[in-house]
Write a structure and sequence with these properties.
The structure is a homotrimer.
Chain A (H helix, E strand, L loop, with lengths): L18 E9 L12 E3 L14 E9 L10 E9 L7 E10 L4 E10 L6 E10 L5 E11 L5 E11 L2
Antiparallel strand pairs in A: 1-3, 1-9, 2-3, 3-4, 4-5, 5-6, 6-7, 7-8, 8-9
């Protein structure tokens, strides 16, 4: 293989992604009685710091669809966690894996970053991938698409890869 | 330094890794009485969602050896966490650091991703490294090598780096 | 875009970072009564394994300043978590996002890795970034700059990016 000494400095900032997936993430928190429908569950039981759930920590195995309908066949699962982390507003932090196992894609995309809920669109990092997404890097933009308190929320995810192998 | 505008698109998918380490990870969960031997401990105490430990969250400082023997001298520590996240089967999610501090290697490798236990081999992402593994990226393949319920489990880890500096 | 088959092998190890930020991270743990000042909170309530807090898991929204003073105007927030993970000494693991939203920088830097507290300087991985730090990669070196038990600690962070877009 070639061996180069170089610094990647001007590559992708204003370029189009080499791959762009638009997906919808659906989260239904376990409330003690909805075991059949719940897709996530709280693991912390400390008293929150402030009035915006700071300390609530949730692990999830959430369906991901290509349209907004919770009832559509999932194209992936999102497996990971989020927690709330602000005293003065709703604000969260996510790390998770998109697990694809369909005819179209097999593989995973790994994502982490702050979910600054007060912003309409917030960017997390795609830090790696496997299978069809081998070594992927990029950005995932989250937008809240529906919010029904603890009962249900839906995020639109735009997964934009800028390094594709 | 050179400044290039390029998209990495065809590099490594079918190439050999620039580095390949085969390691074994040993986990002994704290059960309240095995403090001398335990290498990990549960931090959540919520009731699981379903019958497969969904919500159980474990932090660990596990020995990593180059052969299968728990009693072999560790070549690294694995420090991080896993949690179970599925209602219908055992399934987990990991993030951790391999910490090397031996004659052979000094430095760390950072790993995260889904551990889809139902698959024989599952790939996580190597998202970074330090020291001898400065800026590493790649894939870590996990295989369950021994499983004795809560008492002990062992994973074979094949750490394959495709970007080496 | 160009399509190259190459292996990055000799790039940055001995080169200067393309960007270097020196920052200070301030953490004040919630103790049940300091809600006005606290910036982080414990989410686990399991008994620690051993005498060094192994199992204590903390989520935070911490101010980050460009000098050592807690009272200086923050240049970023650090949002994420750490936990202790060793039986025989204080040792921790971090994952977090530096959130910049000032005149100088807008965007985020995502960081994870082991905080081997027994070492004077310890390196974590910068695994991604967004906005002004789009697709960043590198190393963050942590040094304990002040430690007052649970009440307050301060870390010096040297964020060194070796891939800048």
């Amino acid at each position: 293989p070639l061996t180069l000494t170089l610094t990647l400095t001007s590559a992708h900032k204003h370029e189009l992604p080499c791959k762009h997936l638009t997906l919808y993430y659906h989260d239904i928190l376990f409330n003690g009685t909805n075991q059949a429908n719940a897709t996530s569950t709280l693991i912390s039981n400390s008293a929150p710091l402030g009035s915006f759930n700071f300390s609530n920590f949730v692990v999830f195995d959430d369906p991901v669809t290509s349209d907004r309908l919770l009832t559509s066949p999932p194209v992936a699962r999102a497996q990971g966690f989020y927690f709330y982390d602000m005293k003065t507003d709703f604000n969260a932090w996510f790390a998770f894996t998109l697990v694809f196992n369909s005819g179209k894609y097999k593989g995973t995309i790994n994502i982490m970053g702050a979910d600054i809920i007060g912003q309409k669109a917030r960017d997390l990092s795609v830090v790696g991938g496997t299978g069809d997404f081998f070594m992927a890097r990029g950005i995932t933009t989250l937008r809240t698409d529906a919010f029904q308190g603890w009962a249900y929320f839906r995020l639109r995810m735009d997964v934009k890869l800028y390094e594709c192998y």
